[in-house]
Amino acid sequence: MVGYSGVMDLMLQGSLLDLADEMSLGRLAAGLHRTELGAGAWVDVRPGWLAAGDELFALLVRSVPWRAERRTMYDSVVDVPRLTRFYAAGEPLPHPLLDTARDALSVHYEAELGEPFVTAGMCLYRDGRDSVAWHGDRIGRSNDVDTIVAILSLGSARTLALRPRNGGRIPGSLQKALRLPLAHGDLVVMGGSCQRTWDHAIPKTSEPVGPRISVQFRVAGVR
Ligand SMILES: O=C(O)CCC(=O)C(=O)O
Ligand SMILES: [Fe+2]
C-alpha cells in the first residue's frame, strides 16, 4: 500500500511532468541569434521560443475564422494561396499566450523599435502547395522607414526565404539569399531596413508537409 508520503511523491511527480509539458515561452534573449544582412537590415532567430505549443496550434487551426486569400497584395501582384486572419490593434487575440508573446517582444525590442507591437496577422498554410511569393511588408509606413516584424511559427516546419531586393543592387546589402528553416515554436524577427531592402517568401514545397501557422506581430500602420 502506498502511504501518505508515497501519494504525495506520486502527485508531485505528476505535477512536475505536467509542468514540463505545459506550454510556455522561453526567455527571449536566451538563444536569440542575429544575422546582419547589410544596408541596415537584420534578421533574428530564436529557435524553440515556444515550448509545447501543440494545443495552441490545434486551437488556432480550429477556432480562428480563417479566410481564403488569393489576391493582389503588397506592392506587386502576389499569388497568395493560404488562409489568413488579421487582428487589428486592440482586437482580442484567440489565446492569452499570444498577448504574452506580443508584449514580451515589445519589451525586448523597445529600444530598437521605439513603439509596441500591436497587430497580429495570422496565416495558415494547409500543405506544401500553400505559400506566399516574394514580397516585403511595405504597406504603410514600412515603405519609407525601418520597422520590425516578428513571426512565431507553429506546426509543420517550412522555409522562410530571404533575398536582397532589386537583384542585390542596394548599396551595402549582402549579396546572397538566405533560407531559414522554421520549426514548431521558432521565432524569426526581421528588422531595420529588411522590409525595404530585402524580400521574403514562404516557397511551395513538394515535401509531404502538414499545416503551418505563422503569427506576425507588427506595429501600428504597417502591413
Ligand atoms: O508565414 C510567414 O512566416 C511569413 C508571412 C509573411 O511574410 C506575410 O504574411 O507577410
Ligand atoms: Fe511578409
TrEMBL record:
The terms under GO molecular function for this entry are:
dioxygenase activity
Q: Does the keyword Amino-acid biosynthesis apply?
A: no
Q: Which residues form the Fe2OG dioxygenase domain?
A: 116-221
- Asked whether the keyword Oxidoreductase is assigned, the reply is yes
Name the keywords, alphabetized. Answer: Dioxygenase, Oxidoreductase
Which of the seven top EC classes does this enzyme belong to? oxidoreductase
The biological process GO terms on file are: DNA alkylation repair
Name the Enzyme Commission number(s) assigned to this protein: 1.14.11.-
Name-wise, this protein is DNA-N1-methyladenine dioxygenase
